[in-house]
Amino acid sequence: MPARPLYELAAGYNNLFELVLDDTVDLSLLEEGLESIECELKEKCANGIALIKSLEQYAAAYKQEKQRFERQQAVLENRIKRIKEWYRQNLDAMGKTKVPTKYGVMSVQNNGGKAPLKVDNQSLIPEEYLTVVPEHKEVNSEALYAALKEGAVVPGAHLEERGRSLRIR
Fold this sequence. Notes:
Layout: H1 11-21, H2 27-36, H3 41-94, E1 98-100, E2 105-110, E3 117-119, E4 130-133, E5 136-139, H4 141-149, E6 157-159, E7 164-168
Antiparallel strand pairs: 1-2, 2-7, 3-6, 4-5
Protein name: Virus Gp157
Pfam families: Sipho_Gp157
Keywords: Coiled coil
């Protein structure tokens, strides 16, 4: 973020620039500030342009920083997933389900909820489990899931294991 506006602002506009950057300042106070600056119309408009362009540059800088932070966040979240998966695999291999530490408890447990539905080959799914949409057929996941859960064998689909995940409390 630039330290000062890149455009030369008159003294009153420098103060106004600082107020604009303060997100706690009420908008009506900013409008009063604009109205209170005494100068010729041409000078007032020139300073208004400089103020707006400076603020646009700040906004662009914030946008770039936001994108950089989002990329860093995604990288960190991916690394956290990888590290958790590494611990889960190793604890599973050692037959350990819970390890208490001074920072918390690391435990491996079966995931709860519904077993994930995996459609291996939609063309093999019987018509009774398909929903007709004007352009194509779609799998009726709820009906297919219910049938598989009751033990039906449906070509082209099966229920997968719920899987396991690492929990840190």
